[in-house]
Design goal:
The structure holds 3 protein chains of 3 kinds. By secondary structure, chain A is mainly beta. Chain A contains 2 helices and 10 strands. Chain A has a 5-stranded antiparallel β-sheet, with no helix packed on it. Mean pLDDT of chain A is 67; it is low at 1-14, 26-87 and 210-214. Helices cover 27% and strands 25% of the residues of chain B. Chain C is of the alpha+beta class. Chain C is built from 4 helices and 10 strands; from the N terminus they run E-E-H-E-E-E-E-H-E-H-E-E-E-H. In chain C, helix 2 (153-166) runs antiparallel to helix 4. The chains are: A mainly beta, B alpha/beta, C alpha+beta. The interface between A and C is large, with 81 and 113 residues.
Chain lengths: 214, 372, 293
Amino acid sequence: MSAPSVRQRFHPNDTTRGVLFQDQREDDGVRSPSASDWRPRFAVEPDQCFPEIEEASSNNGHALTLHSPHVSGDNVQPRANGRAIPVVAISYKVAPDARVRILQEWEGEVTEVYDQEFDVILRDLSDRLRPEERATIDVEDVSLGDRSQIKLGAIFYLSISYRTTERGQRRRVSEIAFRRLPAWSGREIKEAQRKAVEMGRRFGVSTQAEDQRD
Amino acid sequence: MASQHRPKTNEIEISIFGPGVGECVVIHLGRGNWAIVDSCCGTGSNNPVALDYFEALGVDPASAVKHFFITHWHDDHIRGASQVLARCKQAKFWCSSAIGTGDFFTLVCLSKGSGMASSGVDEFRAILEILSQRKPSGVRSAAVGPEWLLAGMSPVSYRPTLWMRGVRILALSPSAASLTLAYRQIANLLPREGEDRRRVVRQSPNQSSLVLSVESKWFRAILGADLENSANPAVGWGAIVQSHRPNLDLADQLKVPHHGSRNADNPEVWRVLLKKNPIAVVTPNSALRQPLPTPADVARIRRRTNRGFCTSRPGGRKPTTRGGAIDKTADSVAKNRRTVLGSMGHVRCRIGAGWVRTAPRIELLSGAYPLE
Amino acid sequence: MSYPGYSLNSKKVRNFGNFSRPPYAVREDLGKPSSGRVRRGCTQPLPSEVAHGEPNPVDTSQPDTGCESIGPGKMPLSTCEISGASIVLLGSFNPWIFQPSWLVATGLAAAQEAGGDDESVIHPQVTAFGIGSLDLRVTREKFEINTADSAQFRPLCDMVIGIFGILEHTPFTAMGLNRRMHFSIADPNGVEQVFARLAPREPWGDQLQDLLPQSLTIAGNPPAEHAGRFSVTVEPSVRVQGGIFFAANEHYDNEKGSAARVLLDLLQARWEESLRFAETFAANLLERTLKRR
C-alpha cells in the first residue's frame, strides 16, 4: 500500500479537524452576516429553489447558512439583484456531556449458531496479549436490529463501559454491536477472480476462469 | 522458551506442539536439516512456536529449515505461517493440492482489504506474497513453490550416508477423489453478489487435509493433521487404508488426527497402518463448545495404546480476572467464558536413524501429559 | 498564577464580550441537540452546564482502555472524562445521497437506528443527521462523521469504510482523524500548572494582567510508518471544571492521482493506532506537566 503524501507543512487552518460538535467555545471574533440572534428562522423549500451554501467563516468553525432566493425576513442577506434572502441556520450540536469510560473491549466472531444462543470466539482488544476466549451469548442480549446479523463468521464488538448521565448517575453497561460493512459487490468478486487467474498463472494453478476461456 | 539441547546429527526428532488451539510439528531429518508442518502461536505471543523452538535450540531457521508444509488453510494450523516462511529463507513450501484451486485464490484475493479477513486465508495471502517476492517473474513455479501435494508423492527424500539411514517424507493424502469434494467445499465458501461480508468459516468434514508419513529404516510416524473419515472409501482415512501396501513398514507413531475426535477415528488405521501399542500424540482443541479430545475420545485412544500423550489439557481455563466489575458484567453476557489457549505443550520423540536400531526417547515438556 | 475567568473553585462565569452571535446555541439541558434557545451575548456555557467532575479514584484492578495518567500513589493525576472522535474527509460529495434510509438500505445501519433525529437536514447541498450514536454532516466539499461515545469509535470507522466502499469513485483530497478529550485533573491548580509549563508567563512581561492562555497548538510527525501530520490543541476545558481539553488531528493529503482506496486503506490501518497515539500523547503530556515541580 503506498502512503499518500503525509508529511505536509502544518497549516493553522487545518480543515480536516472535526467541528460537528462544539466541545469548546469559538472565540475567533468572526462575524457572520446574520444577526446576533442565532436561531433557525425559515425552512428551505427544496422544490422551489436550490439554495447556495455559504460557510459563515473560512475558519471552519461555524454553522452553515442556506441562502434561498425566496421569502423575506429580518435576518437576510440581500443579493445583487436586490431580492431578500432568508437565512436558515443549521446549528452545531452541543457535544453531549455523557461520560463513557470504556472498561473492556473485545472483537467477537460467531462460530456456531443455535436457536436461542450462539457460540463466539472473543479477542481482547484492550490487551492483545491475552489469549482468545470462547463463550456463549444469548440472542436476547443482541439488539433487535442486529439479530439478522447473527451468522457464522459474523464479527461484532463487545464493550463494557461505565456511563455517567448528566445527573451523575453511573451505570455499568455492556453493548454488542455487529460490524456492518457493505455487501459483496459483483465488481469486487469479478476483480478478485481476475487477480486469482493472474495468481494462478504465477503459481502454476489453472483456474476455472482460465479453463472456461480456453 | 528455555534453552534446549539439539538432536544428534543422525537422530530423527518429531516434536509436536499444541497450546489448546492449533498445532505445529517440527521434524529433524538428520544432518541439521529440519522440516516444519503447520504453525501455531502460544498464549500472549505472536511468535510462531517453531521459531521459538529453533531459538531455544540455537538453530538458525534461515539455513536449517529445508521444508515447510501446510496441511490445510484452517486458522489453527496456519497461524504465524507467513512469519515462519519469511524466516526460513531456504525452505521449500508444500501444501495440499486441495487448495491449489482458482476458487481458493479468489478467496485469498477477496480477503485483502475486505475488513473481514479470516486469519487462515489472510495468512495464506501473506505466504503467497512472500513466495511472489522470492520468485522472479518467468521462473518456473517449481523452483520456489508452493508445491501442491497429492497422495503418493514423496516431497522429501534423503539418501543414506555413512552415519545415517535414508529419511523420506511421503504424502498419504489427499486422494484424487477427495480433491473434487474439496474443490466443491471451497467453491461454496465464495461469497455471492449481495451477500453479507463475513469471515470465511471452515467447513466440515475435512477430507482433504495433507497427511504425511515421516520414514526411516527404524522408525515411521504418521502425522494425521485434521483428516476425517468419510462413508466414501476413496476419500479420507479410508482411501489411505485402501492404498496401503502390505510390504510397507507399519508406523511407530501417530499424530492423532483432528484432536482425537470420533469423526476422524478409523479403527482400520490402527489395525492396518500402525504397530501394536504405537506412540499416539493428541493436540487438543479448546475452542469448541465440547473441547476435544473428550473423555470418550481419550478412553478410545487408551484402549488402543498405553503410550498416548496429549500436548496440553483440553477445555481451556477460566480467564484471569480483569477486575470484579468487568468479570461480573462479562460473565452475565458472555456465558461459560474459557480461554482457548493454554500452555504450549510439547511432546518430543527422538530416535536414532543410524545403522543400529535404538528405542525412541519420548519427552513430555511444558505441560504435556500422558493420557490416563 | 491564577486564571481569572477560569475560577476553578467558584461557579462564576465570565462574560467574554458581546459578539454578534455565539458560535453555538446553548441549552440548559445538556446532551440534546440545540433547538435554538440562546443566551445572548455570552459564549460561555451556563454554570449549570459546566461539569464539576471529581476525579475518580483509580481501581487498579480495572485497567482503563482510555486515558489516565498515574502519578505516584493510587490517585490518578488526570482522568479522561469526556471523549469523542471524528473522521473528516475533504473532496467532492453529493450530500443528497447521504440519508438514513440509504444507510439502512445498504446494510450499513440498522433500521431502528435511523429516524431518531428530529433535527436532521437532508438537502442537495447539505445533509446533517444522527444515526445511532453517530452524527453525519456532509456538504459538497466535506464529509464529517462524529461520535461522543467511545464505544462507537470502531463502528464509526466501519461506517466510513462502508460508505466509501460503496461510493468508491468519490474523489478525496484529504482526510483527518480527530480525537477530542476532556481531562479532569486531581490537583485544583492543575490547569495553571499545565499552562505554566507549556506557556511560561515570563516572556509575556507585565503589560497584561490576568494573563490567560486561550489555546495552544503544536504539530509534528509521529514516528509510526504511514502516520499523518499530527497536531494537538490544548485548552482549558469548558466542560470539565478545572480540566484540560485536547483536540488531536492527524491529517493526510491525497496525492494527485492516488486512488481514493489508498486513503481508505490507510484509515483502516491507522484508525485505532491514531486514537491510541492521541490518548497516549495527551496522557503523557499531562503527566510530564503535572508531575514536575
